[in-house]
């Protein structure tokens, strides 16, 4: 299975966000629109890149910004010191059709190389919910280019399909989603994943914060209140902003 497919399908066994955080409901409707809208990055970008991967990792979301009931998902190799998972004899039957749609929900640093630093944080919650964050920081115009690349993947893949590692069919739809601005510029979509009678709804926010592009994916079985998604995305943007070095 590709890394991107693994990330999407892992949500079926991991899981997005718990109940709303109790904020007032002044947010735009979470009902998806017919097609993803594209948003331009600031020109010029407003801040310096984060060049130290340790600094960016420390600026990712932590449990204090998330609803109750969530726990961190450690990386087995990086965080726990375990050996990489062994290769198995059974063939990997995963696929994505069309192939370029494997970029949907791929980490930003995979969609555009050359990042000065990158980081990932993942959390699981109750009732098949999960929150994923990844971020990549770039010099020059890299953040603007990465922000564009992520959105181009959405626009070209409003409907696609594939199979998991066992060959089970999976269908995906991507629709535009209204979202108040996060960071210096942001765009949002809803990815609906269905497989063997199970549906997972992922609300995705990608934002430029100074010269860093962050991607937040909030998933559960039916989609969550927009104020919850916004609260998590705003917290993530604030943490990255606070870690950005002075220009």
Short description, anyone?
This protein is 21% helix and 28% strand. The protein has helices at residues 3-13, 53-58, 108-111, 142-155, 226-243; strands at 71-72, 95-97, 117-125, 129-137, 159-163, 169-176, 185-195, 198-209, 212-220. A hairpin with a 2-residue loop joins strand 7 (185-195) and strand 8 (198-209).
Protein traits:
247 residues; alpha+beta; Protein Transport Mog1p, Chain A; nine-stranded antiparallel sheet; 5 helices; 21% helix
SS summary, helix count: 5
The tally of domains stands at 1
Order of helices and strands: HHEEHEEHEEEEEH
Bin the helical content. Answer: 10-25%
CATH C-level: Alpha Beta
Lateral strand order in the biggest sheet:
1-3-4-9-8-7-6-5-2
Shape, principal axes of CA atoms: globular
β-strand amount = 25-35%
Average pLDDT, to the nearest integer? 83
Total E-strand runs: 9
Radius of gyration: 17 Å
- The CATH superfamily turns out to be PknH-like extracellular domain
The CATH architecture comes to: 3-Layer(aba) Sandwich
How would you sum up the major sheet? 9 strands, antiparallel
Query: Structural class from helices and strands?
Result: alpha+beta
Low-confidence stretches: 1-30
CATH fold-type name: Protein Transport Mog1p, Chain A
* Beginning-to-end CA distance, first to last residue: 41 Å
Can you walk me through this structure?
This protein has a 9-stranded antiparallel beta sheet with strand order 1-3-4-9-8-7-6-5-2, with helices on both faces. The protein has 5 helices and 9 strands, in the order ααββαββαβββββα. Mean pLDDT is 83; it is low at 1-30. The chain has a single domain, classed as PknH-like extracellular domain (Protein Transport Mog1p, Chain A, 3-Layer(aba) Sandwich). 21% of the residues lie in helices and 28% in strands. A hairpin with a 2-residue loop joins β7 and β8. The protein has 247 residues and is of the alpha+beta class.
